[in-house]
Write a structure and sequence with these properties.
Chain lengths: 144, 331
């Protein structure tokens, strides 16, 4: 009997065969190293401080790698059968579509704003003004 | 739906019952079929339900994170992490705590499968404590925001977007509240000898602020100076990090004042920050409840399925934080 049953026992037993302490510790170390890498963008040693986009791209890549490691090894998806694609791919596509759909109305909301709104919303010039006020205050207090 | 006409020609070895898909299960007795049930997917029901739930969670958090990204990059101004008193090292520490807890829950599962129930309980308890530590650190961070008047909305929220006339009148209104007038009078009457050096400087700055907001002919730059005296926005750069925070403003020296503050883009920031981290924290709380319940069971191979499902959920919570940390603290 039961090639089928044996096969099923196999898949069930498969769950128990994978993993292993060494593998989990390796993943854990990789996650720690990756977290330190993204934290590195915050340190003074990060060479692209004046180009935030470089840091963003770097951190997004690091985050995706970390997410992959957690999903594949801690959540055992690496060892799962093909059903994993049925659940994850549609959900991921929905997520992506949602972000794209938000862009015209929300992402580009400041392209054309009403006079009234423009009057009350923060603008980059406000940040400059505050920074200038701060510099003035600091030089004053250092003069004291 | 295979019909005999189609299946017979392919099934040379079983002429009699070739139309049965599971013909090879028959042990030779005609008419005696052993039915074997097969699951639709090669995984247990509990795990299937957990994964279905997690796929809805993927969309839930993708909606939140996606909206945050679109709102953030579509904003004219977005505050720097230091402007809103976010501490990157604390965020990184919390990331480390969650990663550790992900490892301990995996170790609990492995121990349960190996029938080491005591060890499984130990790892489960460690996970619970690490989750609680994460929440504690989060609470501490929330407190740092609240103490500066950074709330998602009124009446507690004291964030103004621009140093303009409206801001000036809000400061004037706060300084005109009866309770504050009494405290100000007390402060004015206190001899300088009874105050610290910092308090004396802050009192002088406060005097300047009171004069400036009393003037009805205010200029934008004057209001920017007022905002800077009340809560300075730290300059972004390696130099400012060395001081481990921000310069002290009047609000920090005299916490009872609770004057309005200016953080350009701060209101939207507060809304998204508290929504994202709040929902994440709620998920952490749910995870902790599940772990606490699991601790009441014998964590052996029989209950390994439950640990696996709880673990799947917990890893997902970790996964969300993996994206939240750089998006909120480092972008």
């Amino acid at each position: 009997m039961s090639d089928h049953a044996a096969q099923h026992d196999d898949t069930a037993g498969h769950d128990h065969a994978h993993g292993g302490l060494g593998k989990y510790l390796a993943v854990f170390l990789a996650l720690c190293v990756l977290t330190t890498m993204s934290f590195f963008t915050y340190s003074a040693a990060w060479p692209w401080r004046d180009q935030p986009q470089v840091g963003w791209a770097f951190m997004l890549a690091v985050s995706c790698t970390k997410a992959m490691l957690v999903v594949l090894f801690f959540m055992h998806v690496w060892w799962e059968a093909n059903w994993k694609y049925v659940l994850t791919i549609p959900a991921a596509m929905m997520a992506l579509f949602l972000v794209i759909m938000l862009i015209p109305d929300i992402g580009l909301r400041n392209r054309m704003v009403s006079q009234e709104r423009a009057l009350h919303m923060a603008r980059p010039s406000d940040v400059l003004l505050l920074e200038r006020a701060g510099e003035g205050g600091r030089s004053k207090s250092s003069a004291h | 739906m295979s019909s005999p006409a189609i299946s017979v020609p392919h099934d040379h070895g079983h002429h009699d019952h070739g139309h049965h898909d599971d013909g090879h299960h028959d042990d030779g007795h005609h008419g005696h079929l052993k039915l074997q049930y097969q699951p639709g997917l090669p995984l247990s029901r509990g795990k299937l339900i957990m994964w279905l739930f997690l796929s809805t969670e993927i969309m839930f958090f993708a909606a939140l994170l996606g909206s945050y990204i679109v709102l953030r990059f579509g904003a004219a101004v977005w505050p720097k992490p230091h402007h809103v008193h976010l501490s990157e090292p604390i965020g990184a520490f919390n990331t480390f705590v969650l990663i550790c807890s992900s490892v301990t829950v995996v170790l609990a599962l492995e121990a349960a499968r190996a029938n080491k129930t005591g060890l499984a309980k130990f790892w489960m308890l460690t996970t619970l404590l690490l989750g609680a530590l994460f929440l504690g650190v989060k609470g501490y961070e929330y407190q740092a925001k609240f103490s500066h008047g950074i709330y998602p909305a009124a009446p507690h929220g004291r964030i103004y977007e621009r140093p303009d006339l409206y801001y000036g009148s809000a400061v004037r209104a706060r300084l005109g509240e009866p309770a504050i007038i009494d405290r100000l009078k007390q402060l004015d009457d206190t001899p300088a000898a009874d105050l610290t050096e910092q308090e004396v400087a802050a009192r002088a700055a406060l005097q300047q602020v009171r004069t400036m907001v009393a003037d009805t002919n205010q200029q934008a730059f004057e209001m920017a100076v007022v905002a800077d005296q009340i809560m300075p926005l730290p300059a972004d750069g390696p130099g400012s990090e060395a001081h481990g925070g921000h310069a002290q403003g009047i609000n920090d020296v005299f916490p009872w004042l609770q004057l309005p503050i200016v953080i350009p883009g701060g209101n939207m920031w507060a809304s998204t920050y508290f929504l994202l981290t709040g929902f994440h924290a709620v998920h952490v709380v749910v995870g902790l409840i599940v772990f606490a319940v699991l601790l009441g069971y014998t964590l052996g191979p029989k209950n390994a399925g439950m640990i696996e499902n709880a673990g799947l959920y917990w890893h997902f919570v970790d996964l969300v934080w993996i994206f939240l940390f750089p998006l909120l603290y480092l972008f």
